[in-house]
Amino acid sequence: MSAPTLRERLAALTADLVRFPTVATNPAAIAECLAWVRGWTTDRLPEARMREFVSNGSSSLLCWLGDAPPRVLLCGHLDVVPAASDDAFLAKRLPGNRLAGRGVADMKGPIAALLDLFTSAPQPGLGLLLTTDEEDGGMHGTGYVLGQLPWRPDVALLPDGGANMRLVAEQKGALRLRLTAEGTAAHGARPWLGVNALEQLYAGYRALLRAYPPPRAEDDWRVSIALTQVSDGGNAGNSIPAHAEATLDIRYPATGPDAFAVLLPDLQRRLRRYAISAEVTMHAPPFLLDTASPYVTHVQAAASRVTGGPLPLCREAGASDARFFAVAGVPTLIFQPVCSGWHGPDEQLDLTSLATFHALCAAFIHSALV
Question: Looking at the structure, do residues 139 and 39 belong to the same domain, yes or no?
Fold first, then answer.
């Protein structure tokens, strides 16, 4: 098949997936998207076996061929983060064979390539897992599915990172904290009579930033702490709030096996000085690639055949579902096509690179399943 034909086929499939606004607050759209994928796959590969998993309202779909469990598992998530406009869910072609829209990079474009690979060149030993809760932590998707399966794949291929055809060697751990501050209510005109819970939160957050100065770039491999949500519990506009909550999104490197055990108590200790309690709502350990794995050798050989050279290694501040596979002892390969603007208004995917990604994955699957 010619590259332009494959490119256009993948562009159309990506656009079909993007049109579903699969954000966490729209479970109907998530269900419709998953049903569409199931129907699309069955139409092209009726012999495919499928199993759906549901945990805490989040659905996952596992597809494979034959009676034996898959040895190579292609993985991705269909959920996306919210967009400012409904227009973001209409994929748009841009000059230079680019595609724009919510989820084209993270990660419906790569999923389009995986779906096409699974259905157009089915091979015994190949499986496909699609989840719908990665943006909310992945515990009820990949985490749950792995806990239900009595088997493990030999290797997982997860194109949720490693943009611009780079192989991810390390990802930071992710920690989400819910902060709660209790103060004393008072009239807004008499602030000296109250204790402002919002001000407590901000003071504690600033103290954390002094202790953990923010990284300045992707390769600045320090702890990052971001204030992502703040609530005064519906307090009146002319009242000093007695209660306030906030969410911190924290990313930390694998400085050692006890990195999390050291970091969390230190954060909680610093926040207690401002009468702030901190509850862990999500934790994902860092991901480290075993570069000695034979599957790394396979994918690098495939990259050399398809692109003329191996995939450069990189490390990323973001986290992915690779952490669940790592805990389960499954080697996980993370790389994706040329793309940019994840979670932003200018999310884009290079379609020519998507076709190259497709070819590289096909070469890897063939060598891994020999």
Answer: yes
Residues of the chain with pLDDT under 70: 1-3
Residue-wise pLDDT tens digits, 163-185: 999 999 999 999 999 999 999 99
> Residue 301, SS3?
helix
Coil, strand or helix at 235: coil
State how far the Cα of 212 lies from the Cα of 263, in Å rounded to an integer: 11
CATH number at residue 243: 3.30.70.360
CATH value at residue 333: 3.40.630.10
Q: Count of residues for the chain?
A: 370
- Give residue 332's domain range: 3-170+286-368
Is the CB of residue 318 less than 8 Å from the CB of residue 161?
yes
Q: Distance between CA atoms of 53 and 139, rounded to whole angstroms? A: 12
User: What span, in angstroms and rounded, lies between the C-alpha atoms of 59 and 331?
Assistant: 24
pLDDT at 1: 56
Shared domain check, 304 and 271: no
Q: Report the candidate in 231, 271, 234, 233 with the shortest Cα–Cα distance to residue 250.
A: 271
Domain count along the chain: 2
pLDDT at 3: 63
